[in-house]
Write a structure and sequence with these properties.
Two copies of one chain form a homodimer.
Chain A: H1 8-28, H2 34-41, H3 45-51, H4 55-77, H5 83-99, H6 102-110, H7 116-120, H8 123-144, H9 154-170, H10 175-189
Helix pairs in contact in A: 1-2, 1-4, 4-5, 4-8, 5-8, 5-9, 6-9, 9-10
Chain A binds a DNA duplex (30 and 30 nucleotides) through residues 5-10, 13, 33-35, 43-47, 49-50, 53-55.
DNA sequence: GAAAAATATGAGTCCAGACTCATCTTGTCA
DNA sequence: TGACAAGATGAGTCTGGACTCATATTTTTC
């Protein structure tokens, strides 16, 4: 069962393509041409299609990669003692990780318009579910701890996360603006904001 | 100087195309094909190109239309006595108007990626400036009245507006979720949330 | 180190969608 | 109502970008 027949250069190329695709999608959105990715990765276009038979699969691979990172981060934070801090930390991590990934937010937003085919099968739905579960844990615990307003659920949070990713990216040139923006949104999420308003850092 | 040589049917067609384009872009994003718009508008594709020589110009026309509406709304609200309410009302109007316009939010977000050429000339920049000015008035007055936190400026607000448009649209199927989402964001914007927290409606 | 298998190459195919234009139709105006 | 210019038509052109495949290069294996 241990498939070990992958040639070393093939593995290297695959990683390189994935990496490049991530950067290119971030810069030009998922509409960026496969040819550009191939060129920047220093391989022929045929090589890209060998590893990712369709463009949708390439896009999917990039997202699965990102989502995995975020899910891992969420799971780790879920073990923290301070449920409130864990929640807000995740939100911040999310904003940071998303900041450079325009296409990421896009694809999440329409969830299956750009990557219809891919969204139905493969690793994508699994990772997405995984992430959702981890985030839900964070939210529930933070609400139980009285740190987050209790009138919102996963749908609200999801929509908010996606839009935060976009908003933050929009002002990526100015970290101060980013911070204030994030702070504003987080303040809205706090439970009965009258109580636990920490001093501005 | 009064150019009055526009044939009646031409004016009708133009309006029809604009209207249809708005709907189609809303449904499928700005990548929707010109041919589809022509078909749904009941005209030949050549007619679309007669009125809007390039696709970018068609997209621009649709946005200018929307932006004008919003600018008008903002200007009107700016004359209200209650600066705080005016600000929050505008936010709500914005969210509603944006709710059905995916491409609208997109185009605003990247402000000149999809419509590069168009953004540089024509009515677009003018209307955009107009809207920005009206919104700035609303913000400044609301802050002066102590209704909105004073640590944010137009950049933060802008990014927030765009993200709200997206977020709201994402959950357009559920008005309750929409309301809670908007409420969360507005709460974050209020000044020293400790003071003026109205009862949950 | 040579055969075999896996992988890389990139010119070429194919197609969708923007845009053109020769020709036909219709509103306008006297 | 006739004439003519503005407008409409849609088959056809052109282009960019996804995807293929015959051939050339590696790796791997023994």
């Amino acid at each position: 069962m241990v498939e070990k027949a992958i040639r070393a250069d093939a593995r290297r190329n695959r990683a390189r393509i994935l990496e490049t695709a991530e950067a290119v999608f971030a810069a030009h959105g998922p509409a960026a041409s496969t040819e550009e990715i191939a060129r920047k990765a220093g391989v022929a276009i045929g090589t890209v299609f060998r590893h990712f038979p369709t463009k949708a699969e390439l896009v999917e691979a990039v997202f699965v990669d990102r989502l995995s990172q975020l899910a891992a981060s969420a799971r780790q934070l879920a073990e923290s003692d301070d449920a409130g801090a864990a929640f807000f930390d995740f939100f911040t991590t999310w904003a940071e990780l998303s900041a450079l990934k325009q296409s990421f937010a896009d694809a999440l937003a329409n969830d299956g318009v750009d990557i219809q085919a891919a969204a139905e099968r493969g690793a994508y739905p699994a990772v997405r579910t995984e992430l959702a579960a981890a985030v839900e844990t964070l939210l529930t615990r933070a609400q139980a701890a009285g740190a987050v307003r209790s009138d919102i659920g996963m749908r609200e949070l999801n929509a908010l996360l996606i839009s935060v990713a976009r908003a933050v990216e929009q002002v990526r040139d100015d970290p101060d603006v980013q911070r204030r923006l994030l702070c504003t949104i987080l303040d809205g999420l706090r439970a009965g904001t009258a109580s636990a308003r920490p001093a501005e850092s």
